[in-house]
Amino acid sequence: MREAAFVRQNKEKWLVFEKALNNNMKINPDDLASYYIQLTNDLSYAQTYYPDSKTLLYLNSLASQAHQKIYITKKESKNKIISFWKYEFPLFFKQYHSTLLYTFLIFMGAVLIGVVSTLNDDSFVRLILGDSYVNTTINNIENGEPMAIYKSGSKMGSFLGITINNIRVGILAFAFGVIFSVGTIYILLTNGIMLGSFITFFYNYGLLEKTSTVWLHGTIEISVIVIAGCAGLVMGNSFLFPKTYSRRVAFVKGAKDGLKIVVSTIPFFIIAGFIEGFITRYGEQMPSFISYGIIFLSLFIIVYYYIAYPILLNKAIPQIKNNHLSEQTLFRTQNA
C-alpha cells in the first residue's frame, strides 16, 4: 500500500486519538487499550514499509503520548495500594501457611534450646547475649531498674536505629534462603536461641514478669522475623522442591513470592521500632492493663492479618482472585 493511501485510511482515527490525548479527555480503559493496540499495529506497519517517513515520526510521537497516558492512568489508581494490602497479599499468602507453620516450629525449637541451655549453664547466656549486655543488665537489676537499658538514647534515634536493624534482620532472613534454606534456618535458630536465653536470664533472677516491657515491641518484632524467615524458606524450598517446574523457573517464582512476603513485613517492623523507641521506655510505669492491652492487640493484629484473614478471605470472597487477575491482565494488555 502506498503511504498516501495508508494515511488516508487511518488519518481520522489517529486525529481522534490525538485530540483525546492532548485535551486530557477521560477515555474508557477498554477504549484506550483498543486505540493503543490499533496504533501500535499501524506503527509496526509504518516501520516496515515507510521507515524514513514523516508518518513514522508522527505515529512514534502519538504512541509515546499514549503510553504515558496509560502509565499515568495506572499510577493514579488510588485503590492499587489498598487493594494490595486488603486483597492481593492475603489471598496470595494463604498458600504459604504450611511454610509459616514450619518456620514457627523451627523458631520455637530454637527458643526451647535457649531456655534449656540457660537453665543448665550460667555461662550460656553470656555466650549468646554478650558480656556487656549481661553485666549492664545485672547492674541495672541491682539498682532496681532491670529494664533501664531500654530507656537509654533519644526516642527518635532509638526508633530509627531499631527499625533499620530490624528490617536488616528481616531481609537477611529472606536473602539467606538462597543457600538452600539453610541460611534462613540459621537466622531463625540464632534469634530463637537469643530470645530463649533472654527470657530465662530474667527468670533466673525472679523477674520474668518484667519481660512484659520488652514484649510491648517484641510481640510484633519477633512475629515478623518469623514471617521474614517464612519468606526465606519459600525461596529456598522452591529450588529444593521445584514440583512440576524446572528448578530455574521454580526458583524465580519462589524468589518473587518470598520478596512479596518480606515487603509485607516492613510496615510492621516500623511499628515495632516506633513502640520500642517511644513506648517501651515507659513500660515499667504503665498500668498493667495498658501494657498487656498493647501486647495482645499486637498479637491479634499479626495473627489476624497473616493467618485468620487470608483464610476468611479465601472462603468468603474467592471471586476477588479472578477480579484482581483480570485487572492485572488488562494492564498487561494495555502495555503490550
UniProtKB/TrEMBL annotation:
Keywords: Membrane, Transmembrane, Transmembrane helix
Keyword field contains Transmembrane helix: yes
InterPro entries: SpoIIM-like
Pfam families xref list: SpoIIM
Keyword match Membrane: yes
Residues passing through the membrane, by range: 100-119, 156-178, 185-203, 215-240, 261-283, 289-312
UniProt name for this protein: Stage II sporulation protein M
Naturally occurring in which organism (per UniProt): Paucihalobacter ruber
Lineage, highest ranks first: Bacteria, Pseudomonadati, Bacteroidota, Flavobacteriia, Flavobacteriales
